[in-house]
UniProtKB/TrEMBL annotation:
InterPro entries: Hepadnavirus_pol/RT. PANTHER family: REVERSE TRANSCRIPTASE DOMAIN-CONTAINING PROTEIN, RIBONUCLEASE H. It comes from Cylindrotheca closterium. This is Uncharacterized protein.
Length: 694
């Protein structure tokens, strides 16, 4: 009796996957992807293929979730996940197996293999940097692979010390964990061969696969979940062996076996004994361990080892086969153009670092330029790839290369431009905050935090990284300035985002106001000037300082917004070494660092509040409201005030060439009050080079 995944359910999934592969570009909604992953993962209880095939799809979903910029409800249905090459290959593998017959072992499992029973057979294995070894008294076999044999088969083994099995270098090449896993897989392969020869037994075989490496034990169940493409090759072999074992009514139970009790396998894996010059021959090992004396020596097929070794290398794909040095040196310019054109075609199809099929023409040109330089370096001579017959002012690539880039340029769509914040959006947020029943909790909350930073940002032209956190490495609370020799030691490791020391306030006589007196002095009307310092900037220079004067407006006042930011930081007890873009979920005992996606969420919510009509331009384009909209808002206001591109670029720390790019086709009706306030504030600012007394 067996448990199987019904054929009609597999047929339904087969039709769904075919539909996805027909799409151009190949993309799915997060809900579709999650449904497919859930279906295949549920089948992993029946067949080992389920775990292996579902995890590559799960990676695509996880990566998309990290990049989500909308609220969860709309993201699940409206966003798109563009399938990577790995995900597409996994879907093709699924399609190959889904229509297998009802009783196929690929998607079925005998009930007997679900029951916990005593082991009928045991097999032991061990690995060292000097070799692999394994044995089984129940199946009566033993085997050994020396380091020289593994190297000959294609394994990239580490160099080891003379008269020792320890590696000469601490890193590089195969680690001991994959070697232990490989030894267990070879043991399993031999056991399967023995079961085929012996035939079935009542109740089936219950094999204890005993390994003295806990990582290898866990990989027997979870290696299919690794993101390492090299280990995925071994995981695929392991999954295939487990499917075959299931078909033979054989239950495989990986178990940890203490190293001090695994002496026979350990001796088999060590052709050289530590501290001894003589070889630890197979005959001496058998003579020393009595349980090996009844075992037959198993000679593993060299072809099998070579194929396994190939899975631990990244093979070239498609037409991008590695040329030998001899063949490479024989290439003339025409041959090099053919190689570059083939490479460019593969890049367009998704074989690139981003695994995307819709790269822009300029990006393709950069890939081609880099490949051209690399080929010139390998050949040691210049390669002519330009069209000598072209009579234009600028050089042009050979038609075989030019046409591929030209076709992409003709059909590519320009990116949608970010939209600015509008006066109605800020008014809607201000009214929502004013109507809150708990002013303190609201002031400390996320919405008020975003409100303060964005209304300050329309004067400063903040980039998102200057007050919020984007993509963070695991375990990091906020992004920091890199530890490089070019960075002054005092600034290395400091937050990228604004800190309290970057905010300085002055009264009308240009006298500095300490932060601990700030709120009191502001309530008395003494705070007039705000000075900001950009310690780390994407523009030409760091440590840029700019000053802003109080406007007195209820919303559009840079000084008022900055005072609120410092006050919130003080109330939450944020240390001076941390960014001050923080908010609390209701208590003053804890706080969160503001994320870039949270800025987008709050400001898009303000679009909904300000424009109830779903057909309004801003509602239709709410997805174009992002943290960068701060800079677009300031640029629109300055342009309407008569500033040219160079002046806008200077005010906002931009490149002049970037200004028309972001102003093109964006929403211009941002509100007269907002325009006049920012234009007036910009005229009142005094440059960092002028003295306060001026």
């Amino acid at each position: 009796m067996t448990v199987s995944w019904p054929l009609y359910k597999r047929e339904d999934l087969h039709s769904q996957l075919l539909d996805i592969l027909k799409r151009r570009p190949r993309c799915v909604s997060p809900r579709e992807m999650a449904k497919i992953v859930g279906i295949v993962r549920s089948a992993s209880e029946i067949a080992p293929w389920g775990n292996f095939l579902s995890f590559n799809l799960q990676n695509a979903l996880t990566q998309a979730a990290k990049n989500a910029f909308s609220d969860k409800r709309s993201w699940w249905t409206c966003s798109r996940i563009y399938l990577s090459r790995v995900a597409v290959a996994t879907i093709h593998q699924l399609l190959e197996t889904l229509l297998a017959p009802e009783d196929s072992p690929l998607w079925s499992r005998p009930i007997a293999l679900y029951l916990d029973r005593d082991y009928t057979h045991r097999a032991y294995s061990d690995a060292s940097y000097g070799g692999l070894g394994g044995w089984s008294a129940d199946f009566s076999f033993l085997w050994r692979l020396t380091r020289d044999t593994l190297v000959e088969a294609g394994f990239e083994m580490r160099e080891i010390k003379i008269s020792s099995n320890d590696p000469a270098l601490p890193d590089g090449f195969l680690h001991i964990n994959p070697l232990e896993y490989l030894g267990a897989l070879i043991n399993l392969w031999i056991c399967i061969k023995c079961v085929i020869l012996l035939g079935p037994i009542d109740g089936g075989y219950i094999l204890a696969l005993l390994i003295d490496n806990t990582t290898a034990v866990s990989w027997m169940s979870t290696a299919s979940r690794t993101k390492d493409p090299l280990l995925q090759g071994l995981a695929r072999i392991g999954s295939a062996l487990l499917v075959e074992a299931s078909q033979l009514l054989m239950k495989v139970c990986p178990k940890h076996h203490p190293g001090n009790q695994n002496g026979a396998a350990d001796a088999l894996s060590r052709p050289q004994l530590q501290g001894k010059d003589h070889e630890n021959s197979l005959a001496s090992v058998i003579a020393e361990w009595s349980q090996l004396q009844t075992c037959r020596i198993c000679l593993l097929p060299f072809e099998l080892l070579s194929k396994i070794a190939l899975t631990l290398k990244e093979p070239p794909t498609g037409d991008q086969q590695e040329l030998s040095e001899h063949d490479l040196q024989k290439l003339d310019d025409a041959g090099c153009i053919l190689v570059l054109g083939t490479y460019l075609r593969d890049v367009k199809r998704g074989d690139n670092s981003k695994e995307k099929e819709d790269l822009k023409a300029d990006t393709l040109r950069n890939y081609l330029s880099t490949a051209h330089k690399y080929l010139q370096y390998r050949l040691g001579r210049p390669i002519q790839v330009m069209d000598p017959a072209y009579g234009g002012k600028q050089n042009r690539y050979h038609p075989f290369l030019f046409q591929q880039i030209h076709d992409r340029r003709c059909w590519q769509q320009k990116n949608e431009r970010y939209e600015p914040f509008t006066m109605e959006m800020f008014v809607a947020l201000q009214q929502w905050l004013a109507n809150s029943p708990d002013p303190t909790a609201t002031f400390l909350g996320k919405v008020h935090c975003v409100y303060d930073w964005t209304r300050l940002g329309i004067f400063t032209g903040f980039r998102a990284s200057e007050y919020s956190q984007g993509d963070l490495d695991r375990g990091k609370l906020f992004n920091t300035i890199p530890h490089k020799n070019d960075v002054p030691k005092a600034f290395r490791g400091m937050p990228l985002a604004m800190m309290a020391i970057d905010f300085r306030f002055f009264d009308k006589d240009y006298v500095l106001i300490p932060h601990h007196h700030l709120v009191t002095r502001y309530n008395r009307g003494d705070v007039v000037w705000l000075e900001l310092c950009w310690r780390y900037d994407k523009s030409a220079f760091n440590f840029v300082k700019k000053r802003f004067k109080i406007t007195g407006h209820q919303i559009y006042c840079p000084v008022d917004a900055a005072v609120c930011i410092i006050r919130r930081k003080t109330m939450l007890g944020v240390p001076g070494t941390c960014p001050i873009g923080v908010w609390s979920s209701g208590t003053m005992s804890s706080y969160h660092f503001l994320k870039s996606r949270e800025v987008s969420e709050v400001m898009r919510r303000s679009v909904d509040l300000a424009y109830p009509n779903p057909n309004h331009y801003m509602r239709i384009n709410r997805h174009l409201i992002v943290p960068h909209s701060n800079r677009v808002t300031a640029a629109v206001c300055l342009q309407k005030g008569g500033a040219n591109n160079d002046e806008i670029a200077f005010r906002l720390r931009w490149l002049p060439s970037s200004v028309p790019t972001y102003l093109r086709d964006c929403f211009q009706s941002i509100g007269d009050t907002l325009e006049r306030t920012i234009q007036g504030a910009m005229k009142l600012t005094f440059s960092s080079s002028s003295s306060p007394s001026s």
